[in-house]
Design brief:
By secondary structure, this protein is α/β, with parallel strands linked by helices. The protein folds into 2 domains: 5-93 and 169-277, Metal-dependent hydrolases (TIM Barrel, Alpha-Beta Barrel), CATH 3.20.20.140; 97-158, DNA polymerase, domain 1 (Orthogonal Bundle). Helices cover 41% and strands 15% of the residues. Strands 1, 2, 3, 4, 5, 6, 7 and 8 form an 8-stranded mixed β-sheet that branches. Helix 1 (20-29) links the parallel strand 1 and strand 2. Helix 1 (20-29) packs parallel to helix 2 (46-56) and helix 5 (134-143) crosses helix 6 (150-158).
């Protein structure tokens, strides 16, 4: 019997809403056999999730989602099967968390200038880990009545050109991949369909990723349609990259991104877990 994999998920240690134990329990309830915990720029939830997975009878893959910059864009690189205690990765993630928190302070200032009271302090109440993300500000804006939902909070306040937008220059794509490889991990470009770039830019990015030592691309994601999955399957084959799959689950309110609710790989994909087996 084939296993059900979900290799992209989040807890409240970054910008999810469930504890690591709750995430694992939900994954087990949804029929997931192998789950990767990939919180943004932090690995604090892995120990708890691993213990919970042992109790739930599923396999936990330790992971992280690293923020990098490429040609002025933010790109996310998922690191799978990492050693969370690796010193190089640990130092790098601490650097990214400091950058995130500095950005959070500036977002708060800009929102307050736009008439949103106590923005930084209010958003901080939603953060249960070491980072303060834009999603925490979005949830704050919704609960205080400034936006109808998280998507509208981003569109009206937090995206480029809006009052709370703050550009952040992360580390380079090459650096992020190096940290993941130093920790023994498999580096995967997360949800490439979400990046607003031309076909030529996508090919350049994947080429540079491969040259930097990257391993795979998220061919199947929770909000992809069949055509997008086929597109990234073709690119994975062209650039000799492995294929990964993940819901990018953050919480039950995002019902369209449920744990384990993933389409099968298109034909010709080589799954990332074959690298681990080898």
């Amino acid at each position: 019997m084939s296993k059900t994999f979900d290799l992209h998920s989040h807890t409240l240690r970054s910008d999810g809403v469930l504890t690591p134990t709750e995430l694992v329990q939900r994954a087990a309830d949804k029929g997931v056999d192998v789950l990767a915990l990939t919180d943004h720029d932090v690995t604090d939830g892995i120990a708890e999730a691993t213990a919970a997975a042992g109790q739930a009878g599923i396999e936990l893959i330790p992971g992280v989602e690293v923020s990098v910059s490429w040609e002025g864009r933010t790109i996310h690189v998922v690191g799978l099967a990492i050693d969370p205690a690796n010193p190089e990765l640990d130092r790098g993630l601490a650097q990214l968390r400091a950058m995130r928190n500095e950005r959070g302070r500036e977002i708060g200032k800009r929102l307050e200038r736009a008439g949103v009271e106590n923005a930084h302090a209010g958003a901080s109440e939603y953060a249960h880990g070491e980072i303060l993300s834009r999603t925490h500000f979005a949830r704050f804006l919704v609960d205080r009545g400034y936006a109808a939902d998280v998507g509208k909070a981003f569109r009206d306040y937090l995206r480029k050109g809006k009052a709370g937008y703050v550009r952040n220059d992360w580390v380079s794509l090459e650096t992020g991949v190096r940290w993941i490889r130093a920790a023994g991990g498999t580096a995967v470009i997360a949800h490439p369909g979400r990046y607003k770039m031309s076909a030529g830019a996508m090919r350049r990015m994947l080429g540079e990723f491969r040259e930097s030592g990257g391993h795979g691309v998220e061919v199947v994601c929770g909000n992809y349609n069949a055509a997008e999955a086929e597109r990234f399957a073709r690119l994975a084959r062209e650039f000799d990259l492995l294929s990964s799959c993940g819901s990018d689950f953050h919480g039950p309110e995002q019902h369209w991104l449920e744990l384990g609710k993933l389409a099968p790989f298109p034909a010709g994909c080589i799954p990332v877990w074959e690298r681990w087996a080898a």
